[in-house]
Amino acid sequence: MDFGLLAFSIFSTIAILGSIMVILKKSPVAAAFSLVLVFFAFAGLYALMGAHLVAALQILVYTGAIMVLFVFVIMLLSQDEPVNDLKESSGLFKGVSVLGILGLMGLLIRAVLTARGMVPTGTLTDEKIVSMGGNVRLISEGIFTDHVFHFELTSFLLLGAVVSTVALAKRKAVSGGSKA
Amino acid sequence: MLAQRKPGFWNRIYLVEVIRGLSITMKNFLFHKKVTLQFPEQRRDYSTKFRGQHYIKSVNGVENCTACMLCPTVCPAECIHIVAGEREDKEKYPVKFEIDSLRCCFCGMCEEACPKDAIKLSNIYEMSQQNRTVYEKDFLLEQRGNK
Amino acid sequence: MTSLEVTLMFVKIGIVLLGLLVTVPIMLFVERRGSALIQNRLGPNRMGPFGLFQAACDVIKFIFKEDRAPGHVNKFYYTIAPWIAVIPAFMTFAVIPFAGSLTIDGTETHFQIANLDVGVLYCFSVASLGVYGIIMAGWSSNNKYSLLGALRSSAQMISYELTLGLSIIGLMMVFQSVKLGDIAAAQGETLMQLGPVSIPKWGVFIQPVGFILFLVSMFAETNRLPFDLPEGESELIAGYHLEYGSMRFALFMMAEFVNMAVASGLITTLFFGGWQLLPGFATLVHLIQGMGLLQNDGLVLVLFQGMSFVIKLAFWMWFFVWVRWTLPRFRFDQLMNFGWKVLFPLGLINIFVTGILIYKGVL
Fold this sequence. Notes:
The complex is a heterotrimer of chains A (180), B (147) and C (363).
Chain A: H1 3-24, H2 28-48, H3 52-77, H4 91-115, H5 126-131, H6 134-146, H7 148-175
Chain B: H1 9-13, H2 15-30, E1 54-56, E2 58-59, E3 62-63, H3 70-74, E4 80-86, E5 92-100, H4 109-113, E6 119-121, E7 134-135, H5 137-140
Antiparallel strand pairs in B: 1-6, 2-3, 4-5, 5-7
Chain C: H1 3-38, H2 54-64, H3 75-92, E1 101-104, E2 107-110, H4 120-140, H5 144-175, H6 180-186, E3 190-194, E4 197-200, H7 203-206, H8 208-221, H9 233-236, H10 246-271, H11 281-291, H12 297-324, H13 332-360
Antiparallel strand pairs in C: 1-2, 3-4
């Protein structure tokens, strides 16, 4: 067995087990930790594909920043109450969730089956990427020259989200009668 | 009262002040005289009035104490226990003389009360123990003191 | 890969691992002795010459202490938390170059475990994993002080990671690379010539503001004073590692010291020329090469480059200790205000100004 396949099976096993743990863990914080594990395994998979930049950004942004915020908020708000069990939910909810899961599974299997053997290969090969200065240079050049408009548009979207969040939070504080 | 100081521009920049602080600590690190006393080899000089471990003064092997019970009476911590007895020459003497070293607060009142100059507090301050020691008469009579 | 390359790889990994492991007891000693001398005390001086064996005694004490966990903790996370803190700390050093390159039998080897394409991004991403050790420890200890320590540390890390990232963008713009190997190599050039003194193109001379921002946020990222709020012994007793003892506590300490080493390594590599020779070393290298003691002239150079790197690293490690015993701890609101309202805008301005200067052709 070659190293790549071994690493792939390890990382994908971790990812699958971690995702199952996210659902099964009763404590929200423990579930969040499992999600961190899943993200980390994903980063490993990206790195195996040679996408080191995506792997690094996956860890830096999702694992290192967003999940820390998640855990922070969970720890700050809930005193670690167990989440609602499936047993307590209504029969309709159970049925709908089972149907949804089956549908998603079917879609996924369909997608894999149709896409097999026809994965489009781009013009960039590994050697070409190296000769053009590496992943980081290529991606950053792409973002800041050809796709700069979309990039800036996204940043405006995020800015709008931040401004509206602050506005909402502030309005709540004022109507609550407490002056911040 | 809360003192309101207006920090100047250079104070608010922090950097200059941080560098000043660093130079102060470096000066201390390199040049300042170290104040540590290396204990077993070097010792601090205590006042002669220092009240440390107890002892009972004896002259020619006979303790000065006559078991008059003034010291257990005056002792605020009630740490002195004396059982009086009589020698062959009809002299009163302590058969038992115990000082509970954990209860004693080293106030020195026993020393002041004693009419015979028998009980004394010496300058000895190394009294660490591994059990709850009660000083027995034999131990107190060992004449360790310096007064 | 030829067998020579594999051997060299193992040698490099061995050097880095061994170096980091040796750093920990040395820093234990330096911290205790240094703090004592700064406070006009003598510090531990009984074991061996100058108390040098004190570190060994500390290590032995940690190993032989009873390893017990309190009954109220979440056992699984409590057990793995110290490891999660310590492993990323060691992993981060993989991309830091500690000497130049050496040619043996026609194979050129760079003294860096992995010259990754993403370079410094790898450092930041792996270092950001270390915070999970702290969060897990704080949460699984099931103790309010620990939880508060974990909360503080997560908020602090997020806030200062931003500044950390922004502070080096200017540097990347100047050197046009994120690879640490390239950045270290590029700093060998001369920036300007002032009579007999030539100032090298070190990061600190072209990005002084970036350097200060980087330094400050590195202090916050390594949880060292003046930013050690997750521990904050006057408020939180010991913060996140309150319920830990013996070797598990020692692992947290190890993680802190290794993080310090990584931070010093990054500061050295990015802003102080990395393995570039210290002033005066060049003549020494020529002298020894002239004597012809060693077969390979490159080996002498590499040795001196490694020495320069270690000396610079040691200075910054000492700087961490020095600052710790100089500055008092920040209050939490001061920390947040400082991070978001001072350092963050400064980082943005720094990028902007650097961009203008590059456009004008000054840098």
